[in-house]
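Input/output pair, single chain:
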Amino acid sequence: MSTGMAIRVGADVVAVHQVAESVTRFGARYLERVYTEHELSSCAGPPSVRAAGLAARFAAKEATIKVLRPVGHQPDWRSVEVRRHAEGWCTMALAGHAATLAEQAGIADLAVSLTHEGDVAAAVVVALCGSGTEAVA
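Output:
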């Protein structure tokens, strides 16, 4: 049975301590290169809490790029944004080259799930694609 829709799935795992080390070592230069203002404001709190939230968002960015399948030029980190809603759930927002790749792939919708426990942060991104795109399991 075919609905004319396909699914792409991307997943990624990030070590929280590596993100914490990048924040310590590079500070604002790292944060402003990788994260949007919304993402930074969503990860307020003590350094360990902030690093876990940032690591989960980095994993979501990586998982989204896997779904977009860029050839050659990878989208800017800030063009792939995790949007946290007031009620607590997150969605993905794309801009620039990332949005163009999604349009070319016929991606109609993206869903994201973030998690972190101890030194591990992870994300899974699922894309619903229109007809003519190939499904990935």
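The two ends are 17 Å apart (CA to CA). Residues 133-137 have pLDDT under 50 and may be disordered.
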